[in-house]
Design goal:
There is one protein chain. The protein has about 160 residues and is α+β, with helices and mostly antiparallel strands. It has one domain (about 10-35, about 50-155). About 55% of the residues lie in helices and about 15% in strands. It contains four helices and four strands, in the order αββααββα. A four-stranded antiparallel β-sheet has the order 1-2-3-4. It is globular, with a radius of gyration of 17 Å. The two termini are about 30 Å apart. The relative contact order is 0.17.
Length: about 160
Amino acid sequence: MVVEKLEDMPKKKIYSIFIILSVFLADFLTKTIAVNKLLLYKSEPVTSFMNFTLAFNYGAAFSFLSDAGGWQRWFFIIFSITVICLIIYLLIKENFSEYMPFSFVLAGALGNLYDRIYYGYVIDFIEFYYKGFSWPIFNVADIAISIGIILLLYNMFSGGKKI
């Protein structure tokens, strides 16, 4: 396998690597701080609409399948690895134009996959609320995945103009 020199790499690949590493590192560091500074399920107010609340998510988005008995951990690990491999394949393709959205999705998927493999659950700690409504607790990896999906949707409906 031949490794490309940095100056020979297309800018898209450099941007992708930067996004992936930056988001993964930010996710890892913020989760580490959350685990070391917060008590499980004890909310620490940050603003009038946001708390830091440490939570362990054994399921998927919105705690989907979190009470399924343990098999879901392996299902989500295998599913994540499959999606990650597909995205890496797409990012390696030279003419692939969706590199930025998929870089965000890949970074978030890697962050949450790390948690599932290392801890057996995903570490969440950001909670938004308004009056009686509370959004499910999430993390930086989830934000990156959401940004990637929003960018993909924008690209789909923007009439050919891609980010």
